Fold these 3 entries.
Entry 1:
Amino acid sequence: MTLKQKLLTTAVSLHIALFAIAFVFRSELESFLAIIEIILLISFIIFYRLISKALQPLEYIDTFSNLLKEQEFTARFSELKQPDLDKLINQFNLLLERLHHERLEIGEQKGVFQKLMAESPIGVVLLDYEGRVTDINPATEELLSIKRQKAIGNNIGQLASTQMRYLSKIAVDSHQLIEANQGRQLKVAHYEIRDRGFSRSFYMLYELTGDIVSSQKSAYEKLIRLMSHEVNNTLAITNSLLESCLAFKHQLDNESGADFENALNIVINRSGSLNKFMQGYSNVVKLEKPIKTSFNISKMLEDLKSLFYAECDNRKIGFELICEPEQFIVADANLLEQALVNLIKNGLEAIGENGCLTIVLIQNQTSTCLSIKDTGCGISTDVERQLFTPFFTSKESGQGVGLMLVREILTLHQFSFELVNRNDTQGASFNLTMPR
């Protein structure tokens, strides 16, 4: 029962009781009974009006409360020409007006924020009070290769199978350089804000790949050119002198001459090996801008399968090619073939013997996806973070040039790529996406 109902019930009960008393003493009151009844009726009417007016502010408060619940901030109350009540009405109208303006400002700010989130090249990951992802922007989707729908509502720990796992290791108010898929170098910063009395975290991701790669490339290009120049000049002079020295073998007896010729040939062959060694590095810095044409990549893969047939047969490695016969892409065929040769060699070296190398080519309306899968030992965590670092190699006799050359060629084509462990079996998979 409301306060108004209680007061009206009390007033009605009181007046009924007075009517009853007057009726009991009607004989004594005689002609005054009618007057008393009229007075009691007028009294009840006055009571009712006073109660209604006294409780009218409560009715406005109830209406105001409903407006707040419904967030209807554009409504306004009219004045009633009652000073006390009009003061309350004016306060309500003032508060509603302020709420309306604040809503407009928040809406404008939210619009600007959403626009910034959508257009910013900086990745942003927002968490709620319990550490669940509430929003990520398109830049984060692209940098971490994750869809917004998959991330929202999950804790960072629940996304351990994705690249979001890197974020959980970064302390508050600190930043860290991480290497994500496709050889990307990301600077990730972790911050906290106070929202309605609680702490909320958010992450900001900056891609530094271009700057780092450019700096690395500038440094190693100068070094390689200097080394190539000095080594090639030295080898040219040395080989010339050695070839001249071979002419003197006839001045020695047969046994000494044979030993002399063998020793010189060993040095010449070693010089040739050194020349090939330096040529591997030179190839990286001599890459020209791709000359793109349309060609049948299916035919190229068939040719590469034939090229490596003998090596696979000797190692007892199966070579499976899954693709349609006529699939065309636009790229520099020579450069892309060079990259694919390196990737196939890496796959065969990872397998060693008795395994299987599988190449899968799938084409859709927007892109061509190529996967080179091996059944080797896979990629360890330490190696994974340094895969595309210049001159890094996990092989005892490697130069660290193969993947570096692959990265250069694919980056020149603006193709996206990643080298990851396989989910279906042991081994690694190099996944390449080429826009059509």
Entry 2:
Amino acid sequence: MPDLTLTDRLLAVFEALDISRAHIATQTPSDISKLVEASPERIAGIVLLAPPRMDPTPFVRHASDVLYIAPAGGTLGRTAKTILPQMPNAQLVTLDGYDAESWDDIAVDRSDVADVMSGHLSSVASVESINGKEISGEVAGIRYHACGHGPTLVLTPLSFAPSQWLPLLPVLSQHFRVVTLSGPHLGMLALLEQRAALTGWRNMCAGAFSALNLQSKQRVLEVGCGSGAIARQFVQHTTGRNPLTAIDLSPYLLGEARHAAQSLGLEDRVDFVLASAEELPFDSDAFDAAYSVTVFEECNAERAISELMRVVRPGGNVAIIVRAIDLTQWWNLPISPEIRAKIEIPAGSVAPNGVATAALYDLATAAGLKPSHMYPYIVASETTSGPVFEFPEAHALAQLTSEEQTAYQAAKEEAVKSGTIFLTRGHHCFIGQVLK
């Protein structure tokens, strides 16, 4: 069903499960923003659980029914401080003493979130109670799992949290008929899949694959496979000649990666393994080459590079690509220099020991990798639909005043009409040889 919008898909799930009205909780507000605008009568209470970024505009009219749960610090805490002044009627609960990033396991770290959500949703507009058995299925490309009894509560995926909502379900299902959604059209999975389809992105990854200088049957490791989109491209690029092991720290993402590979008949081409980039569960010299794409921003990069060098044999090649927060984004819009200065800086979600700048080159070289290629790479997105554009746009809009937002939207409309709109994002790429 390629022509369905995300709102169409969500409403199809509602119809299939006979949901006339529901509470909904999300960490990715863009998953539900158009549903909120198009069918507000289908939604009662809304929980925004520590969004990494969002455009609050669709939620302002419903702010009295919105609960915003915010970490005290970290990137997710800073996002809340930017967003909440634009939704003064929303209820705020701050998770004191908790600093969080989009990859943190918030449901494990703060199990009290379940009681906070239950308390808020019980105080807003009523939703019909539903009793039913535990069921699973798929509708319009969205998979669902329903359990519990009570008013319907729909959960869209958390960002990169390894456990997703699972630790909270025992409590939530005591109060609600909980419908947990998943699939490639939702949350960060949608971002990873759309990003991997960009021509510039595929060219960047293909260049890294080629630079590994692989011979047939040489073993390759991918660190941080996410949705499996890059692993699938690697298999296609090498026509299956090279056995690939792909690791990720998230059971949720690994499950989605396996599902996508199976749907394309590639399950025998990739071995998906639950593991951390900082502690690889493989013997020394187990692989002939390795690559990692936009992962070392979110971990201890020095430790991860050391682990890559340990598991790749001497003479093998390693490719590392990271987001470049030290390179500006170019928004091809007729906007003022003042607005451009505010929105050209990309969101800086980076772990304390992660790397998302040109420091990658020195870090990898200092670790002992012999550099063969080092370069920045710019990827462009020419569509305004979907998370590749909408996520950075939400961050950009949050930096602007209401008058500047109006000017931005007018400029965007003009660029869309003229067919000249695009957005770029920079990356740093390092390819080097293991010397031991």
Entry 3:
Amino acid sequence: MSDILKMFVPMLLCAVTCVLLGLTAIPLLRARMTGRFEPRIGSRFKTDGSEPVMGGAVLVLAFALWYFPLSLTGDISRSSNIQDSRAGLILAGIYVIAVTAVGIAEDRLRHFLARPAGVSKLFKQLLIYTLSLSLTLGLTAFSSSSTEVLLPFHLGYIEFGVLYYPLTALVMTLAVNLSKLLFCFGGDTSGSVGGLSELTGAVSLLSVSVCCRIVYSYAGQIFADCAAAACIGMLFWTLAPSKLITGESGSLCIGAMLSAAVLLTKLEFLFLLTSVPQIIDLAGGAFCFARGRKAYRDTGAIPPRSLHRALLDKGRGSYTVLLIFLLPALAGAALSLIFAYYAGAFVIRI
């Protein structure tokens, strides 16, 4: 219980820091968009169309302000995870900042400089993949990393050898992009739901934190706790009506947080389990697109390419959509905990 309380206080402070940073960042970002600096944010429950798009900048700053001090001072001596090291924690934090910077550049080009093309898609994906590969190799350099992956259903471990690094980086890149889909699909932000990325991200990160505790990965727990707290703090500003829009920077930041947190646990199967809401959003969107393509073509409207956009088109409110997506997020969290208990029992039997 004392360990839980020790992390609760920093998590609370991190969430509060995110709220306070929004008070400063929103007027500054809004001034870049409108050309007028107005220090008062106005009513939290009203929007006027001047809400800025760069939530990732606030999210990553709140995360970094508490994460890096904790990564240097937190107790990881009792950890039994072979990937736990302070250098690895620092690398994971740098990875999140670097991926978020890619999103910030995209938001700046699209929404502040009025360049709809944004960053080249191929260049962006190559950059995210390179950063993911660098983190995977970096953790190996600073710890006794294994290239084995534990499978469910008593299938045991599978040894990937040198292929572990490029394949893991590829999975991380896919996970980051899946997280982005909860905010927008193909750059279309018209159907975004305020707080959806942060809510599902917070639930998944909290489940990873508990998984870390189950498998005695205290370094991973520090990372996941700080990331989850930052997401919870962002909800104050991004829940509808949003005063600060998540943007590509925020969605990429959350995806990077999830990817790095799972990598630190050394339970790679969690990449799939923590992506349950995103997979359902993508699959549901594909089904709605295929089923209603003719109807949308007749009206000249753009068919939805995500489940949350389809729900909005059917008249569901933002908070109804949040509740709908909370269910698969909780299901993915429950499956993650089951897998973590299975992993602990499997290692003990070996």
